[in-house]
């Protein structure tokens, strides 16, 4: 079987070398404006003063504007969870230069909201192309429009408004399922954003490979904490916290309906936490709260989050990152943060103590960090873990492995796993991706070799290792997209790295 996999990998390398797969998702044009027969569905967005009229060069002209948002707009059908790219040519003859934006107005339940998708500058008398991109979220209505910034009365022409849509083909040839292959050893998982979770075809593809998922950003504190509602609660009780789950609901619903396990991420972090969370009355103009209030807020934050998921999605979460990235990279000591400033040096110990107090029975509590293979930071992580183990409230450690093919070395990764494993904790690779400088045949082969080596060094720890999770599925949606870091390319096709992960299991010693 391994020989077959090697041949398939070689064949895929040839395809990659000739077709440059993995750079972006395959896109198809779904619309281009055509004004030969009229306005083609476009209309002026204004309070009645703006007007559209035919212009030379196959364009439309908008005049009578009174506000920047007064603009040519058009309704479009969009599919949640798919990527879109947009372009339009604009021309103006009134000022030396003007700023333009492609924007979208989207509505849900009668409530309209807005996003700016792309920007550009147009000099007087010149046609200029403005580009934008967006991953569609779920709304009832989508209106794309072209507006200005700082030029509310400017008349301008536009033409060739083009919309490209990601090809919504998630059907796969017969390939192995990683979660099924590794089911006797550990869970195989991935990270998922709310945009991805809103597309069922995409999620069905993910579920065919992974049996465990982590919200990418949607359960970080700035997503879960409702600052405005918390400010109202603080008028009566400074310790209270309001939470909201709008961003993560699509993933929770899909996981519940399709038997997917979830790993929560994260309560305590120096980043992506509202600054107001640490201030009296949730007001940045007020002083920082006391240690006691901060710990009470943290307890309420965790308790309300756990209560919500247990009431609405009982048993869905199997583990949770309680604290993330607390150790400084260069010193190995605690990182400077609001948590350290407000609570003190024992804030991690107290966070795990509170989490154990309010967490559902059986939920595994994790500390999560990166660069574990770097000696100075590794020393700090191990020292912290020993303190947490002594208090008895931690269950496991999550190795973030955001690596590239040159650093860290496989031997240093192995040494870090060996050292942490000796503490007796449960282990997981929580965030795995490996970047390469380009997607040539040689670099893809090196990436595959690195993925395979990591899986092989992890397999002997399968009794202690609960999960391996890649941080995303396809290259084009990765936070490190320019480095082609994942197992599938932008068209959801398996890369040599995927087959290396498959083959690693066959190399396991009997």
Question: What's a concise summary of this model?
Answer:
The chain is 30% helix and 28% strand.
Continuous helix count: 14
Helicity, as a percent range:
25-40%
Class computed from helices, strands and strand pairing = alpha/beta
User: What is the CATH C level class of the largest domain, in words?
Assistant: Alpha Beta
CATH superfamily of the largest domain: Glycosidases
Strand arrangement in the largest pleated sheet: 12-13-14-15-16-17-18-19
Shape call: globular
Care to describe what's here?
α1 runs antiparallel to α14, α8 packs parallel to α10 and α12 packs parallel to α13. The N terminus is likely disordered. With 510 residues, the protein is α/β, with parallel strands linked by helices. The chain folds into three domains: 174 residues, Alpha-Beta Barrel (TIM Barrel), CATH 3.20.20.80; 140 residues, Galactose-binding domain-like (Jelly Rolls, Sandwich), CATH 2.60.120; 150 residues, Glycosidases (TIM Barrel, Alpha-Beta Barrel). The chain has an eight-stranded parallel barrel with strand order 12-13-14-15-16-17-18-19, surrounded by six helices. It has 14 helices and 19 strands.
């Amino acid at each position: 079987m391994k020989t077959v996999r090697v041949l398939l990998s070689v064949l895929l390398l040839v395809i990659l070398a000739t077709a440059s797969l993995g750079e972006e998702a395959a896109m198809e044009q779904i619309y281009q404006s055509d004004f030969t027969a009229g306005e083609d569905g476009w209309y002026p967005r204004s309070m009645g003063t703006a007007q559209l009229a035919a212009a030379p060069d196959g364009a439309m002209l908008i005049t009578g504007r009174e506000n920047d948002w007064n603009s040519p707009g058009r309704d479009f059908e969009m599919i949640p969870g798919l990527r879109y790219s947009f372009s339009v040519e604009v021309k103006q003859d009134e000022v030396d230069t003007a700023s333009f934006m492609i924007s979208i107005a989207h509505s849900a339940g009668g409530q309209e909201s807005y996003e700016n998708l792309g920007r550009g500058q147009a000099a007087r008398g010149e046609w200029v192309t403005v580009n934008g991109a967006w991953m569609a979220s779920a709304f009832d209505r989508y209106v794309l429009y072209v507006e200005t910034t700082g030029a509310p009365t400017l008349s301008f022409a536009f033409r060739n408004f083009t919309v490209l849509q990601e090809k919504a083909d998630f059907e796969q040839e017969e390939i192995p399922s990683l979660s099924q292959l590794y089911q006797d050893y550990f869970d195989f998982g991935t990270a998922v954003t709310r945009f991805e979770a809103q597309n069922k075809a995409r999620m069905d593809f993910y579920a065919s490979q992974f049996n465990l998922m982590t919200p990418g950003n949607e359960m970080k504190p700035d997503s879960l904490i409702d600052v405005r509602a918390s400010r109202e609660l603080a008028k009566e009780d400074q310790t209270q916290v309001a939470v909201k789950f709008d961003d993560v609901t699509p993933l929770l619903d899909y996981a519940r309906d399709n038997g997917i396990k979830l790993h929560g991420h994260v309560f305590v972090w120096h980043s992506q936490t509202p600054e107001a969370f640490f201030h009296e009355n949730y007001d940045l103009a007020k002083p920082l709260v006391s240690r006691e209030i901060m710990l009470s807020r943290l307890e309420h934050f965790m308790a309300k989050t756990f209560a919500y998921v247990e009431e609405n999605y009982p048993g869905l979460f199997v583990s949770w990152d309680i604290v993330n990235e607390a150790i400084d990279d260069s010193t190995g000591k605690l990182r400077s943060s609001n948590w350290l400033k407000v609570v003190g040096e024992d804030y991690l110990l107290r966070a795990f103590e509170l989490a154990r107090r309010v967490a559902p029975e059986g939920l595994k509590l994790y500390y999560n960090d990166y660069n574990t293979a770097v000696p100075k930071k590794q020393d700090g992580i191990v020292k912290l873990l020993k303190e947490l183990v002594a208090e008895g409230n931690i269950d496991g450690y999550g190795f973030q492995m955001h690596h590239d093919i040159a650093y860290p070395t496989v031997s240093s990764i192995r040494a870090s796993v060996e050292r942490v494993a000796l503490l007796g904790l449960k282990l997981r690779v929580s965030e795995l991706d490996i970047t390469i400088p380009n997607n040539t045949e040689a670099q893809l082969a090196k990436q595959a070799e690195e993925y395979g080596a990591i899986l092989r060094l992890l397999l002997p720890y399968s009794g202690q290792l609960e999960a391996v999770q890649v941080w995303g599925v396809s290259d084009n949606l990765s936070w490190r997209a320019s480095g082609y870091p994942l197992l599938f390319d932008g068209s959801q096709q398996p890369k040599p790295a995927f087959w290396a992960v498959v083959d690693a299991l066959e190399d396991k010693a009997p």
